[in-house]
Structures are given as structure tokens and as C-alpha cells.
Amino acid sequence: MQKVFSRPQALKDKQTHYCPGCGHGIAHRLVAEAVDELGIREEVIGIAPVGCSVIAYDYWNFDCSEAAHGRALAVATAIKRLKPQNIVFTYQGDGDLAAIGTAETIHTANRGENLTVIFINNAVYGMTGGQMAPTTMLGQKTATTVKGRDPTLHGYPLKISELLASLPSVKYIERVSLHNPQEVNKAKKAIKQAFQNQIEGVGFSLVEVLSSCPTYWDMPPVKALDWMKEVMTKEFPLGRIK
Amino acid sequence: MVKKKILITGNEALAEGAIQAGCLFYAGYPITPQNELIACMSKRMIEMGRVFIQAESELAAINMVYGASAAGARSMTSSSSPGVSLKQEGISYLAGAELPCVIVNIMRGGPGLGNIAPAQSDYFQATRGGGHGDYRCIVLSPSSVQEAYEHMFKAFDLADKYHIPVIVLGDGMLGQMMEPLIIKPTNHESQTKNQKPWALTGCKGRKPNVVKSFFMAEGDLEKFNLKLQDKYREIENKEARYEGLFLDQAQELIMVAYGSMARIAKQALLNLRDKKLKAGFIRPITLWPFPKEIFGQVVRKNPKVKFLVLEMSYGQMVEDVKLAVNGRAVVEFLGRSGGGILSEDEIIKYAKSI
Ligand SMILES: Cc1ncc(C[n+]2csc(CCOP(=O)(O)OP(=O)(O)O)c2C)c(N)n1
Ligand code: SF4
Question: What ipTM was estimated for this complex?
Fold first, then answer.
């Protein structure tokens, strides 16, 4: 009998610590599948962020480094410059990449480092208990915006992908979502493309992945998927940005 | 390379030392008074086909060093006081992940933006661990241009030997003054090919490596911290270094100073000895581990001995001297910082008064 679905070699046989309905597990798997399909598991070096996915290295079956909160792209820059033959990527949440690490994000992109960035936008800070993220929706209630995000106090959801797209050294940006199987397939394709770009020496490539956090959106997992489709994708339109 | 003698600033000597010691990666951000160092590195690293990055901040620079070290390369950054403050979180991570690296701090006046005059007021930050957690960095303090050069070899060797960040702590005077430097032939290139089986290179033919400082499982962090502490005790036992003068006889006064301050203190000491004062001199070379033992030995020779600690700060190393002396003798202090530097005359006048 032909086996048509199995665990990618780049993923360890390990139960994750993520909440039911969390998008991180799916995103980890998509990275692992892309790595396997491109046959690069033994060359890959992944940089895990500080956030809910801090121990992503416990799930991936290839070389990994931790990075201080927000500094994954600084760590990745150094590794890639020293080891251009390796495939180096970061996996970062919206707090990590678009708040505390904004300077590293913009400058790494602007230097045109030949890196792959998987950017998980779940509109909150998961790890620390559901506080406002730069990507939190207007009106969205979080632990630190109890009356909802108010643009006069908290600004608007930060579209860092669109900001980055304005830099000449940025070569590829696509926004994808994990809210249904069709979109998951598209996400996989984009992630694979971002790795393929690095293999070909194209330059800085980023995939923004809209991902669910049912726990801190205070929704059951299925409703969280609906909310992504109805609310998040309106603010963060899907598709190729650059 | 043949032995040659050149006239060079301390900052350039630190850079040249790093190059000769096999530094493969440098990241830094400009700040006075260490700018000659980054400028020299940008030129020399590129010439040597190595990696130089002008980072967007000291935060980025130290985290680049983290990545470079995780990839197995001898790596370093340099800065001056405010910039080194920004690096503290990164240094704590480097210590926690047991990554070797070298950090040069050419100290200037503080607190805050302070000024660009030479100072020694980051001693606490360097020796106590300015970042969070129970960690230590080895701290070397050169006091001449020649020593600045040579300390870079020592710094990279110690960093690799103990998997630890090593701080080379100089001040603006050392960084900017010119002195003759004798460049000796070295074979330190071989050091860079050090086996680092834990480094991130891609997992071909082995299990994946992970570089991290995070220990969530019950009991794991305590176990790791105890292992770190064992390493620190070993370093304290083996690596403390100092320069001593006239310590073989009993003395009435012992001057204690490090770095640039030690140069002035040594002149004052020789002057006082000409005037028949029985005086000796201790210059700690490693600030951590602090060379405690010699203080006890000096006190045993003469229980009435007095120590005079001289610093370009308002009293930081003096605390380590007091800990080493442990109440067995009088410890006096004289210091200036924020622009003024103690002169030979000020030191002599004060020494005579005690
Ligand atoms: C310097 C520093 N500041 C704050 C924190 C606390 N902290 C940990 S994760 C995090 C935010 C994580 O949010 P995000 O990046 O969106 O990832 P998520 O958990 O949602 O996946 C914060 C603030 C930290 N670890 N380090
Ligand atoms: S808190 Fe949110 S992001 Fe974190 S694991 Fe749970 S669902 Fe996922």
C-alpha cells in the first residue's frame, strides 16, 4: 500500500506544547515540508524567536539557534555571512519581528541579506498572556487594550510587510493565511518559494503567515478561523506583496 | 610574518591583535573613543577576506556576534560605555549559551551620555555582569599599546578554552594614545580551526545541534547554573593575573591601579621610593577573576601595610581590593572621573598624607 501522508523528516516525532487550534504547529510543519522537498535539511540553520514558538528547535529536526527577543535577524545575518552555503531562516512572531525587533527587521532587509523569514502574525502576544501586538486589529480586546485597540492611543495595525516592500533590496514578500486547507496549501507554496529564493541567491524573502491564537482571541478554534477570514484578511490582504 | 615595530594607537593595536588572533567576524557601531578600532577592522577584515558588518545598533552588533559564535567563528565587537550598556542583554545570552566571544570596551565618562574623556567607571558593569543572571565574563585590562595587542590573543584563547565572553576593558586614553608596537610572528590562524562540535554548520552526518540558553524543564536551569559556577571557580583558580612590583619585601604602602591609571600610579610610586617611602605596587591584569591571593600575601609580610587604590572612577575596583584584604589592613582610595585624571603630583601628595 502506498503511504501518501507522513511526518516530514525535518520534523521530530514529538507532541507540541501549543494550544488547541494554534497556527504555530501548522506553520512548523509547512517549514519542515518545504525543507524536505527542497532536500536541504542537512544545510538548514533555523533561528527560533522568543514567543510561543521559543522551543521550535525541539520540534524541527535540523540545526537551530535561539535568539534574544527581536534579534533573530541579527543572529541570522552573522550565520549566513559566515556560511553562505547554508540555508538560514528565522521564524518570528509579530511582537518579535514588528515591535521589539523592528530595527533588526528593517536593516537586515535593507542590507539585502540572502535570508528567508517566516513571520507569524497572530495579532497578539501569545507567550506573555495576550497583550496588544503591533498587528492587533482596531477594536480588538487584549490584556493591555481592555476596551479594544484605539487608533488615537495605540496607532493602527502595523503593516510591516508593506513597509518592507518599499525597500529595493527586498526581493520577495507574500502574505498567506492558515484559515482553511486551500490557504494552507498556498502558504506552503510561498514558504517553499522563500527558501528556493535563498538557494538561488535571490535575496531577502519574507512570508507573512496569518495564524490563529484562539486562546487569546478568546474564541473556540473554529470561530478563530472564521475571524481570520472575516476580519484579519480585510486588514491584511493576502497575496504577493512584492 | 616577520617581527616589526610600528607606531600605532591602542585602538588600532586592539584591531591588529584581533586580526592576528584569527578573528573571523566583527560587528560594531561607531562611538568615540573607539572609532579607530571599528575603522581599522573595516579595512583589515575585508583585506583578509573575513566578515565585517557595521550594525544598525550595539544591540544588533552583539546579537550578530552571538550568531557568528554559534556558527563556530572567532568573533568580536567593540564599543564604548553607552554602547556597551546596550550590549548587556546580548552578553547575558552569550554567557547563558556558553558562546565564546570578545567584547572590547574603551571606556568614557558616564553616567548617561557623559562625555568622551577617558574613564574607568564601567568596572562594576564589566566584572559584576551588567546583564541579568548569575554569570561572569573574564575581564582583561591592558595598560599599554603593546599589551592591548597581546591581550587580544589571550582574550580569544580564553574565550575558546572556557566557552565564555571575554571583555577587554580599556579606556579612552589607552585607545587613542600612540606607542611603538612590536608585532610578533604568530601561528594563531590555527586556533581558528579549533574543533567546535557544538557549532551550527548544518546537521550533515550528525544529530542536529541547538544553541540556546533556555531551560524550562524542572531542575534543568539549576543544574546548568551549577555547571556554570563550577566553570567560574576553575577560572578563578587558574586564570587570575597581576603585575607586582617590590612585593618580595615588606612594604608600608601598596598602590593598586589598573589600565591607564596604573601607568601614572607606577610613576608616582617610583618617585615616592626615590624619597625613601617603602612602597610596592599591584596592577591587576585580570579584573575578573580578581587576583585576590597576592593581597593576603602582602598583608602577611606586613600586617600594618596600607593599600592605596587609584582609579579613574569614584571607587569601583576598591571594593574588590577590600574583599581581597577582608578587613586585615587599611584600604584607602583616591579617584577622579568625568574629565579629570589623577596626576602624579596628586597621587604623591595623597600617599604622603596617609
Ligand atoms: C527583552 C524581552 N522583553 C520582553 C520579553 C517577554 N516576551 C516574551 S515573548 C513576548 C511577545 C511574544 O509575542 P509574539 O512575538 O507576537 O509571539 P507569539 O507568542 O504571539 O507567538 C514578550 C513580550 C522577553 N522575553 N524579552
Ligand atoms: S497562546 Fe496563542 S499563539 Fe501561543 S500557543 Fe496558545 S494559541 Fe498558540
Answer: 0.98
